[in-house]
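Re: duplicated header lines in exported structure tokens

Our pipeline writes sequence and tokens for each protein into one text file. With two proteins the header for the second block appears twice in some exports. Here is an export where it did not happen, for reference. First protein block:
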Amino acid sequence: MKIKPFLILFLILILGCWFSGCATFGPPPKSPLQRTAQGTVVYDEEFEFALLPPGWKLIQVESGGEFGFGFLKVDPGAFPSQSMFVYDEEPFGCTTKFEDREKEFFKRFLWNSVMNFQVLERKKFQLQNGEGLAVTVEGKDPVRKEKAKAEVIFGKRGERVVAWYITQWRHIDGTYDPSAFTVFEKFAASFKYLKKSFYETL
């Protein structure tokens, strides 16, 4: 009996997925995002924030990654048109003063790019648990013909500095989408902690 080619391909894919660990049995894993009756979203039973508009996809990073979690949206236009914002429990640096942390942070921010970021705006930002510092920067890479605009908001969780930041990438002739920054700022301004952090319990 001959085995049809598509059946062989199917078996190869299943076996490959099995040995690589992506094949699982049982119900799909529970989403860490849960909507509330108040129209907000809770992430991993620890963080609550405003509901995001359609188009933003959750990004999760395993323990030890560069940030906690965030959201990505692929934008129309030439490569590399996309927007991504994240919440970071341990932003680059170690000082607890926002102005000093800003300097430390931008020494390593997008370190693998060749962009030299220039500050466009620096302002105070109101968060749920106090005042923060928002810094908007832009960088350009004329060789790759890319540019990026970013906003970083520094805040406090207990005594520790945390950060929310968005990066929007565009072709060097592309136009930025300000609505993504509005979504991001609403996300950061609405952010609530539902439990104490590990460091606050020490």
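Second protein block, exported in the same file:
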Amino acid sequence: MKTTILFLFVIISLSCYAQDGKKWEHIPMSTLTVGMSFQKFEGLNSRIADHPQYEGLRDNTGTLQLGFLKERNRVVSDFGIMGGSSMSGDRDTKSSTLHFIGINAGIGYDVIKSDRIMLYPIVGLGLEKYQAKFYKDNSGVAFEDVLQTPSIKNTIQPVDFKNSFFNYRVGFGVAFKKSATSPCAIGLQAGYTGSFEDHTWKSGDNQSLAGAPSDKLSRFYVGLVFASQPMCMKH
């Protein structure tokens, strides 16, 4: 929670600083990023593989991020709130789902001096929280048995585990504008996100479990970035 608050203060400060610039290029552009990430939680999946009643996690996740992107004197800063989700198996029978949400902030440098094209390496920090949920095939359980026997109801519940990672990010981005004065841009970001250490999976109630597997965040990502400047702030 303290890390989240710190990030918010940093971003608020950056946003206020950006208002000092008189040119529209100095004003942050709001961004919407649609992409994919690729992550193998080998520790958790190896333990799930020992229990054939459950389906393992997929290694790719669809992502959606909202944030802002700003350039000032060729120094680029960005911030985003990201969510991701994936599912494997059959939704109606045996399946698994992975969801995550996170925040990140980064800084980079525009290596191309152009009014229409921006190419920038970027580094940053972030915090991500994950939930993995596993569903058994309950199609053989009678509906009436679930209604009449409380113990059966408990046996058909999914199991879920949670984890969180304080992470670093390295990558690059590129953005294109139709004209030098255009308030909109489209671009691409790609890179790698990793955690500083392994973290042990916990129960769905965030309690420690004896002998629980550990994993390290090691995620590649790519995303299509749609950016626009608020028209009311153009001048």
